[in-house]
Amino acid sequence: MYMEIQYIIEKLYSLSDPKSLEGMARFGINTSEALGVSIPKLRLLSKEIGKNHKIALELWALHFHETKILASMIEDPKTLSSEQMENWVRDFNSWDVCDQTCNNLFGKSKLAFSKSFEWCKRDEEFVKRAGFVLMAVLAVHDKARKDEDFFNYFPIIYEGSTDERIYVKKAVNWALRQIGKRNIILNKKAIECAMEIHKINSKSAKWIATDALKELRSTKILDQIKNKNPKVI
Questions:
Q1: By the 8 A CB rule, do 181 and 150 touch?
Q2: Considering the domain boundaries, does residue 68 fall inside one?
Q3: pLDDT value at position 230?
Q4: Which of 19-33, 50-64, 176-190 has the lowest mean pLDDT?
Q5: PANTHER family in the record, alphabetically (predicted)?
Q6: Do the beta carbons of residue 151 and residue 189 sit within 8 Å?
């Protein structure tokens, strides 16, 4: 059933909660244009709406925090063009809009792999973050992708490790850890990359490497990898 955009906006206002805004602010989320609707509530609304390219474009254009996240939930990744992805990524102004859009939508696009390379070389903080977030998303969800493709990420992760901006360095760290948890081969490569990063004279690089090595070398993660790939180890 098609929903009028005005109904969706009214629904979002009815779901808004000032306490949610307070919680968002505590997590460093830009709330200047936020209504205060939780992600679980947005997911329920997205199921009610269903996949809809037209409504997704209309919601994104409204510039509310929640309408952008909701748009990423109802847009069909098969309809995504490079132009649309570029238009949307330029509008990122908060880490959660970036991460939700990459997880809900961009990571499912056939363009995700190429965009991850393009965006992590850009200067804009949230565009660059999106490139590394896509690396992490693909490492978790793109089961068919070959190890060799992920090998190509390590030089870019190394290069990005000196970016001192918090939302970039956390995404670099996230990408390195997720790739290293994919299987034992990538775990070893990720550890090697982290050790090289640790040699860099940079606070950001030191933090990224130390945090990644702690997780990638942990018994818990190694056991998880072994359970996923028992024949490889």
A1: no
A2: yes
A3: 56
A4: 19-33
A5: DNA ALKYLATION REPAIR PROTEIN
A6: yes
Q: Residue 231 carries which DSSP code?
A: T
What is the model's pLDDT at position 113? 98
> What is the residue range of 4's domain?
1-75
In whole angstroms, give the CA distance from residue 4 to residue 115: 32
Please indicate, yes or no, whether residues 109 and 215 belong to a single structural domain of this protein: yes
Q: How many domains does the chain have?
A: 2
Phi-psi region of 80 (alpha: psi -120 to 50; beta: other; left: phi over 0): beta
| Residue 38 forms part of a structural domain | yes
Nearest Cα residue to 167 out of 120, 104, 216, 108: 120
Q: Which residue has 């510039």 as its token pair?
A: 63
**64 in the same domain as 146:** no
Give the other-Cβ count within 10 Å of 72's Cβ.
24
Instruction: For residues 107 and 35, state if they share a domain.
Output: no
pTM over 0.90: yes
Give the CA-trace dihedral at 208, 88, 135, 131, to 10 degrees: -50
Contact 132, 120 (CB under 8 A): yes
Q: What is the pLDDT of residues 204-232, one digit of tens each?
A: 999 999 999 999 999 999 999 988 765 54
pLDDT at 2 over 80: no
| Domain CATH for 139 | 1.25.40
Counting every residue written for the chain, the total comes to 233
